[in-house]
Amino acid sequence: MPQYRTRITSKGQVTIPKAVRERYGLEEGDYLVLEPKGEDLLVRKGRLVSEEEFSSLAGRIAERFEDNGVSRSDVEDAIRWARGRP
What we know:
By secondary structure, this protein is α+β, with helices and mostly antiparallel strands. The protein has 3 helices and 2 strands. The protein folds into 2 domains: 1-47, Ribbon (Pemi-like Protein 1, Chain: D); 51-82, no CATH class. A two-stranded antiparallel sheet has the order 1-2. The termini are far apart.
């Protein structure tokens, strides 16, 4: 694939060339993930999980916590502590 150049505007916006958008199926409202790789920046298409996927994952996490004796309030306390809130 050829390389493309684009410029960052004063507002920090970047235009993604049409050929790149078409090649990767990027559409308005899609998310991109920017991942630092040393001096480089990897850009990849982000994906939001569906409500079903999220619920399934949350259920598996809750089961694992319960199996290890960690309660919901323990998790909430840990989150408050990590956020620096009493």
